[in-house]
Here is the input.
Amino acid sequence: MTPIETPCILVCTMDETSGQCLGCGRTRDEIGGWLAMTTAQRRAVMALLPARLKAMERPHARRGAA
Here is the structure.
């Protein structure tokens, strides 16, 4: 059996504003459907994650910058 690629880093906390996981950047629907996705679908989602995680960091950084 081939292991399934995953961006999970075991920091499973959902950001209430974006609806995305603070650890990996996936949505609840993406997390729930991960095993049913094809390799191509999972990789397409993973390509979006760096930008999602960066976007979630911005508001937090502004709060502490004052």
About this structure: The radius of gyration is 13 Å. Helices lie at 28-33, 39-64. The chain has a mean pLDDT of 88.
